[in-house]
Amino acid sequence: MNAITSAPAVQTVHVPLGERAYDILIGPGLIARAGAEIASRLKGRKAAVITDENVAPLYLEALVASLADAGIVSAAVVLPAGEKTKSFEHLMTACDKVLEARVERNDYVIALGGGVIGDLSGFAAGIVRRGVRFVQVPTSLLSQVDSSVGGKTGINSRHGKNLIGVFHQPDLVLADTDVLNSLSEREFRAGYAEVAKYGLIDKPDFFAWLEANWKAVFAGGAARIEAIATSCQAKADVVVADERENGQRALLNLGHTFGHALEAATAYDSRRLVHGEGVSIGMVLAHEFSARMNLASPDDARRVDRHLQAVGLPTRMSDIPGELPPAEALMDAIAQDKKVKGGKLTFILTRGIGQSFVADDVPASEVISFLREKHP
Ligand SMILES: O=C(O)C(=O)C[C@@H](O)[C@H](O)[C@H](O)COP(=O)(O)O
Known about the structure:
By secondary structure, the chain is α/β, with parallel strands linked by helices. The chain folds into 2 domains: 11-182, Rossmann fold (3-Layer(aba) Sandwich), CATH 3.40.50; 185-374, Dehydroquinate synthase-like - alpha domain (Dehydroquinate synthase-like, alpha domain, Up-down Bundle). It has 13 helices and 11 strands. It has helices at 34-41, 56-69, 88-100, 115-127, 141-147, 185-202, 204-219, 222-241, 256-265, 275-292, 298-310, 327-335, 364-374, and strands at residues 11-15, 22-27, 46-52, 73-79, 108-113, 133-138, 155-157, 160-164, 172-176, 345-350, 356-362. Strands 1-2-9-6-5-3-4 form a 7-stranded mixed β-sheet, with helices on both faces. Helix 5 packs parallel to helix 6 (185-202), helix 9 (256-265) crosses helix 10 and helix 10 packs antiparallel against helix 11. The longest helix has 20 residues, at 222-241. The protein is globular. Mean pLDDT is 95; it is low at 1-7. Ligand LNCXM5UN binds at residues 146-147, 150, 152, 161-162, 194, 245, 249, 252-253, 256, 338.
């Protein structure tokens, strides 16, 4: 890929999933156009907008006005911000609002927010009336490049992250890149970890492009839109090949086995760790563990570490403020991972940059000794 200098334009990534096919629109000004885009694609004229306390003051009014202009009547529910909102309590509040708004199966739930709101709203859309339509308006980089695409929805359990949920594809994703300007640097960086992930899974050229162009991606404009569109296309390709994660979709979990365990170990406290930061540390650990298993060169792990550190992401467990539980407790969290089959651990390992693979025979004894080394 080359550095991109042309003016930003809206890009469309199509997700060809048969009767569940949908478009992802990426570019500026999409919240103002949301009503028109939705009305031109979907039949329903009623919506429940689910959002959070941080996003509502910034974008809810504009979204509701755009829906009204297109003849769509909407009701909104504003939930607390943060990972702890992915709970049964808040799911119930959201479901009640959807029912109160008389949203029917052809109407829709609209998620206006980051990954937490998207995951919870998608779950509500998947279970109310056994499924109503669903539109994602992702407002964080992480949700634009990852969680708004692919239909994984859910909430957390005391046993771990995303352990309760359903697959429910959106009918449309509107990724308005203007909203990314309101993110804190920390939030933007956390989303960037998922962008880098696509390079590390199977796009070494994209990873090299990011190493050369990450400053332009952080600055905004066409390079940012290109990075988001490349990420969405990469995700769409994997999801289309394996929608329900029976095999290769697990590649999208690179860095997540360790990352989710670290999120659980920090009690989802965003002051200590947010999801993308856990993924950043998890991706470095996955590369280091692959090197330890003689699958990849330690130089690759160092290269990943260098790039993620350069953008300002945490890359080591010791970067997390406060105490972490012992390696054994992290291992317990890993054992609850959704990829465990017949009690056996599945990890996403790598043979080098952009050469990730699904390993379903990873000995727990190797993982625990690795964790003890990294977190004595
Ligand atoms: O869409 C997927 O598949 C992914 O694994 C993408 C992940 O980046 C995302 O965080 C996902 O929600 C994690 O899924 P989980 O099944 O490990 O909970």
